[in-house]
Design brief:
- With 98 residues, the chain is mostly helical.
- The chain has one domain.
- Helix content is 34%, strand content 0%.
Length: 98
């Protein structure tokens, strides 16, 4: 079955149209090519975000340890009691907070 072409139209505000025209002119392409190139770039960026994290620096070679240690406190990052004094210099905290 042959592929059929379908038109895709959209209304643009005058400033949006001028922006596309400016981009196309700067790149030496048609408005259509400028828009399609932008869409391709956005799709490539999305695909790059889906790639797995690859540790570098000090974490390189220790991938198997990431997330392996448990603090024993299940709500460490969500319970306000564990955050008391966080961000204050140690000289600002009382001795009981340490």
């Amino acid at each position: 079955m042959p592929a059929t072409e379908k038109n895709f139209g959209m209304r643009l505000a005058p400033d949006q149209r001028r922006a596309i025209e400016r981009l196309a002119e700067a790149r030496g392409v048609t408005m259509k090519e400028a828009v399609l190139d932008a869409v391709r770039q956005q799709l490539a960026d999305l695909a790059a975000d889906d790639e797995p994290y690859v540790p570098t620096g000090r974490l390189k070679g220790a991938e198997h340890l990431i997330g392996a240690v448990r603090s024993g406190v299940p709500d460490l990052s969500t319970n306000p009691a564990h955050m008391e004094g966080y961000g204050r210099p140690s000289s600002d905290r009382s001795r009981n907070d340490r």
